[in-house]
Amino acid sequence: xxxxxxxMNSKNYNRMEHSKEILFFKHCNGQTTPxxxxxxxxxxxxxxxxxxxxxxxxxxxxxxxxxxxxxRYDTKKGYDKMIQKAKKYRKHLSIRRSLLNICAAMxxxxxxxxxxxxxxxxxxxERLGHTCWQSVSAAPGAVISVELPDHTMxxxxxxxxxxxxxxxxxxxxxxxxxxxxxxxVATDSRRPFNVITGTGLEVVAHGTQFNVEAxxxxxxxxxxxxxxxxxxxxxxxxxCILEPGESGTYSSDSKTLRIKQVNTEEKTAWIxxxxxxxxxxxxxxxxxxxxxxxxxxxxxxxxxxxxxxRCRITFQDETIQQVLGYxxxxxxxxxxxxxxVRQNGDVLERQKIEVWLEKx
Length: 360
What we know:
By secondary structure, this protein is of the alpha+beta class. Helices cover 33% and strands 33% of the residues. The strands form 5 sheets. Strands 3, 4, 5, 6, 7, 8, 9, 10, 11, 12, 13, 14 and 15 form a 13-stranded mixed sheet that branches. Strands 17-22-19 form a 3-stranded mixed sheet, with helices on one face. It has a two-stranded antiparallel sheet with strand order 1-2. The longest helix has 33 residues, at 95-127.
């Protein structure tokens, strides 16, 4: 018997390798065959360690079921019930105050229960030797920050996500991103920090500050270095080392990598809630505004005028209507907003704004 795998010579299992943990998880979920149940009984009869592992798997399975039950709680139905309850108190309390008190009393225990169960679930899986990953996403229009297990700080841009293990193990620290993330990497000369983009490009750093922009709907992935140094790898092979003030842009279409000097303040202003343009073409302006405001901009350029206009401006707290008003002063644009349409009666699609670039 080995720690992670169990071997058995028998009529049905001769020379077959079985993972104890897989068998245990299948058993706890009622998915084992009679032959596998017999094998499990024999495993448990041979080792106290295996019996302890089985108990741990039972606890993990139970926690996962409890988390699933809580996550499937119908919040809309619960909210409707709270509305009805609140109406009964109309004579004594305002509806607003009633709703706040009732909903807070219901939501806080639910939130605490899910959080505690999720934490215990991760803890139990780590005891079993699993590497647990978690993902953090930024809602459209929002920027969030998170501290990783090694004390690296990460800022996640609107509509982007970051996945990382609850504990970094082995000789390197690996994370995965979708969209745009800025990293301030904690120094660890023995363990490089690896960012996987899912496009073939990998960014490797030790202790440095850099921005990676890798949206799945774009063919170009850009890495901008603010401080320190990073290596850009393709297929596991190092292609270049960036210096501060440089960006490396990889094209998944042409499979090429180009290096250039950039304004790092412009590239990273978003982590402070700003969107900064410095000599930006009008197509890029509306592309970035679309991500910031969760809006689909449709640019019409019937006279091929877009090359004539470059944008130098900084936005922070302005509404989309204010932004469009400022842009209309600088360039001959006309725009029309379309109200979001509900899909399947519940979900609102993204707002659409058509923009026309016209002759003066």
